[in-house]
Backbone:
C-alpha cells in the first residue's frame, strides 16, 4: 500500500481538501472501529486514528484514484500506523517483559444483556488471530467491501473473500456449538 | 508490491454466502437457508467499537484546523542548542523517503559542482596557450635559441664558431668569439673577418594573397640580383577558416650587400610572423685557403726552377709529376677560397609564406559565437556525462536501498500482525 502514497496529484489542492473533509466525515467512526478492533486498545486506537487522519491530510494531494478508492487509501494508511503501533508495543513488551495490553476490558461490557450466543461470539473473536480479527474489523466494523479489503491488505479480491469466509465460518461454528 | 498468498478461487457456495453477508450488513433480506449467517453478521456489526464523544470532538477540531495545532502550540526554541535539538527531533520523526529527495538533490549538486571545478580549465574560457616559438621574431625583440636550420651550416662553422643573434637584426649580427685553429698565428682584426650570414623568415598572409606574396618574393630576388635555389607553392581551400589553407617556401641566395634592402622589401610583402638571423665567422676558412694557395704557389715555383735545372729524362719526368700534384692542390685551395668568398657574398635566405585564413583582429562575430556555443555545449555535455557516471550508480544503489528498506518495513509490519 505504500506505493499509493507516492502517486502524483490528481486534483487541485482545494478539491483535495474538500475531498479529505468528506472522507473524514464518512470514515471517522469506521476507521476508529477498525483500528480498535485490530489493536483491542481504545486509547491506542484513538492515537492511531488521529495519526492516520493527519498523515492522510498531509498526503491528500498525492492520492491517485486509479489505484483504488479514497477510503481504501485511508484505511491502508491507518493499517500501516496500526501495525507500527503493534511493532512498538512488541518492542516495549520485549524490553519490559510485560504482557501486551490487550485492553479487552475496555471494550463495551454488557455481558448481562447478551445471551450465551453473544458471549460465545466474543470468546471466539478473542481467540482469533490478529489477521483474522483484522478481516472482521474491516468487514463488519468498518463496512468495507471485499474489493476495498483486498486493496487494504494487499491481496486479490477473491482471496480476500475466501479469507473472510473462512473466518466467518470459524465464528459461526463456534457460535453453533454453544447453541 | 505486496506479496500475495495463493488462495483457490471461492466456490459458488462461498460466493453466495459472501453476498448474503453483504446483504445482511446492508439490512437487506437474505435467503432462508442463510438466516443464521445473516444473524451472525448483525451480531458482529453490533460488536463494533464506538468512538468516544470527547475524542471525536478533539479530532474534529484538529481536522478543522488542518492539524496545525500541533506545531502552532509549541514554544519557539530560545537557544541554538534548543533549535538544533528541535531540528534533530524533526529529522528523526521524518520518514526516510521524505529525506531522499533533498539528499539526492544535494548529492547531485555536489557532484556537478565537483565536476565543473575539475573541468575548470575548459570552462574558464581562457585562450589556449600558444607554444613558445623558439625562433626569434622581428617584432618580439626577445632572445631565443637559433633554429636548427641556422646551425646546420656545418662546413662554415668548422665546429668552433659561436653564433649570436641580436633580436630582430640578424643581418647586423657580429661574431663574438671566433676560434682560430692556427696556433701562434696573429689574431685577425675584426674588420678583416669574413662573416657568413643566414636568414630564415616566415610570412603569413590571407589565402587569397598567397600567390601575390609568392610572386613578390621572386620580384625582390630579381631586383636585388639574387637567385632562387628552390621553391614550392601549394594552395588549399581559401574558404576553410582557421586552417592552413596554403603554403610557399623559397630557398634564396641574396647578395650580402643587398641583403638589408631585400629583407626590408620581403617584410613589406606580408606580416612577418617569425625571423631568424644567423652569422657565422668563416675567417679561418679564408685564411686556410689562402695559406694553402701560397704554399702551393711557392712549391710550384720551386719545382719549376728545379725543372729548368734538370738534366736527365727521368729526373724531368719526376719533377713534372710533382708539379701536377701541387697544381691540383693549388686548384683545390683556390676553389675553397672561391666557395668561401661566395658564401660571404651570397647569403642563403629561407622564406616561408603561410596562409591561415582570416587573421584574428579581435572582433567577435556570429562565427565566434557559434564556436563558443559549441565549446560550451561540449563542456556541458562532458560535465553531464561525468556527473551521470557518478550519479547513475549512486542512484541505483539508493534505489536498491530504498526498495530494500520498504520491503523490510513491510515484512516487519506483517510479522507484527502475525505476532499480535
Residues:
Amino acid at each position: 500500500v505504500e506505493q499509493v502514497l507516492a502517486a502524483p496529484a490528481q486534483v487541485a489542492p482545494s478539491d483535495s481538501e474538500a475531498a479529505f473533509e468528506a472522507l473524514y466525515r464518512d470514515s471517522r467512526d469506521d476507521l476508529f472501529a477498525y483500528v480498535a478492533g485490530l489493536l483491542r486498545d481504545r486509547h491506542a486506537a484513538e492515537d492511531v486514528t488521529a495519526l492516520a487522519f493527519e498523515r492522510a491530510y498531509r498526503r491528500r494531494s498525492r492520492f491517485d484514484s486509479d489505484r483504488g478508492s479514497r477510503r481504501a487509501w485511508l484505511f491502508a494508511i491507518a493499517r500501516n500506523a496500526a501495525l507500527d503501533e503493534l511493532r512498538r508495543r512488541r518492542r516495549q513488551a520485549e524490553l519490559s517483559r510485560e504482557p501486551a495490553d490487550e485492553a479487552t476490558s475496555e471494550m463495551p461490557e454488557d455481558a448481562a444483556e447478551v445471551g450465551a450466543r453473544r458471549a460465545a461470539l466474543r470468546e471466539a473473536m478473542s481467540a482469533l488471530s490478529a489477521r483474522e480479527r483484522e478481516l472482521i474489523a474491516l468487514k463488519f466494523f468498518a463496512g468495507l467491501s471485499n474489493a476495498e479489503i483486498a486493496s487494504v491488505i494487499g491481496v486479490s479480491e477473491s482471496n480476500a473473500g475466501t479469507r473472510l469466509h473462512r473466518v466467518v465460518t470459524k465464528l459461526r461454528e463456534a457460535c453453533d456449538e454453544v447453541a | 508490491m505486496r506479496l500475495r498468498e495463493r488462495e483457490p478461487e471461492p466456490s459458488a457456495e462461498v460466493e453466495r454466502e459472501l453476498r448474503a453477508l453483504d446483504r445482511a450488513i446492508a439490512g437487506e433480506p437474505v435467503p432462508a437457508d442463510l438466516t443464521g449467517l445473516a444473524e451472525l453478521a448483525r451480531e458482529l456489526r453490533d460488536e463494533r467499537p464506538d468512538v468516544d464523544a470527547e475524542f471525536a470532538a478533539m479530532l474534529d477540531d484538529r481536522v478543522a484546523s488542518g492539524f496545525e495545532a500541533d506545531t502552532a502550540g509549541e514554544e519557539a526554541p530560545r537557544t541554538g542548542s534548543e533549535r538544533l535539538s528541535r531540528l534533530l527531533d524533526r529529522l528523526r520523526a521524518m520518514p526516510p523517503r521524505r529525506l531522499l529527495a533533498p539528499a539526492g538533490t544535494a548529492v547531485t549538486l555536489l557532484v556537478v559542482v565537483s565536476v565543473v571545478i575539475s573541468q575548470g580549465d575548459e570552462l574558464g574560457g581562457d585562450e589556449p596557450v600558444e607554444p613558445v616559438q623558439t625562433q626569434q621574431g622581428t617584432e618580439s625583440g626577445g632572445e631565443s635559441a637559433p633554429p636548427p636550420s641556422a646551425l646546420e651550416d656545418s662546413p662554415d662553422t668548422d665546429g668552433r664558431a659561436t653564433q649570436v643573434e641580436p633580436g630582430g637584426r640578424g643581418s647586423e649580427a657580429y661574431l663574438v668569439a671566433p676560434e682560430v685553429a692556427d696556433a701562434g698565428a696573429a689574431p685577425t682584426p675584426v674588420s678583416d673577418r669574413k662573416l657568413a650570414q643566414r636568414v630564415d623568415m616566415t610570412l603569413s598572409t590571407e589565402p587569397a594573397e598567397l600567390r601575390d606574396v609568392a610572386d613578390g618574393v621572386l620580384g625582390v630576388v630579381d631586383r636585388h640580383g639574387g637567385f632562387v635555389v628552390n621553391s614550392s607553392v601549394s594552395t588549399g581551400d581559401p574558404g576553410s577558416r582557421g586552417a592552413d589553407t596554403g603554403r610557399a617556401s623559397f630557398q634564396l641566395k641574396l647578395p650580402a650587400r643587398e641583403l638589408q634592402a631585400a629583407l626590408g622589401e620581403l617584410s613589406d610583402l606580408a606580416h612577418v610572423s617569425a625571423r631568424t638571423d644567423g652569422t657565422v665567422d668563416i675567417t679561418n676558412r679564408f685564411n686556410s685557403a689562402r695559406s694553402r694557395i701560397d704554399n702551393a704557389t711557392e712549391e710550384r715555383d720551386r719545382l719549376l726552377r728545379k725543372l729548368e735545372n734538370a738534366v736527365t729524362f727521368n729526373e724531368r719526368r719526376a719533377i713534372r709529376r710533382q708539379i701536377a700534384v701541387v697544381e691540383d692542390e693549388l686548384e683545390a685551395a683556390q676553389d675553397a677560397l672561391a666557395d668561401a668568398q661566395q658564401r660571404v657574398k651570397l647569403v642563403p635566405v629561407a622564406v616561408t609564406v603561410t596562409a591561415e585564413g582570416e587573421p584574428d583582429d579581435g572582433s567577435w562575430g556570429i562565427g565566434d559565437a557559434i564556436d563558443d556555443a559549441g565549446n560550451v555545449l561540449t563542456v556541458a555535455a562532458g560535465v553531464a556525462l561525468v556527473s551521470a557516471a557518478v550519479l547513475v550508480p549512486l542512484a541505483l544503489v539508493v534505489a536498491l536501498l530504498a526498495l530494500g528498506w520498504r520491503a523490510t518495513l513491510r515484512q516487519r509490519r506483517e510479522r507484527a500482525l502475525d505476532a499480535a
Remarks:
- Helices of chain A lie at 13-39, 42-58, 70-96, 116-126, 130-141, 146-153, 157-178.
- Residues 1 and 154 of chain A are 7 Å apart (CA to CA).
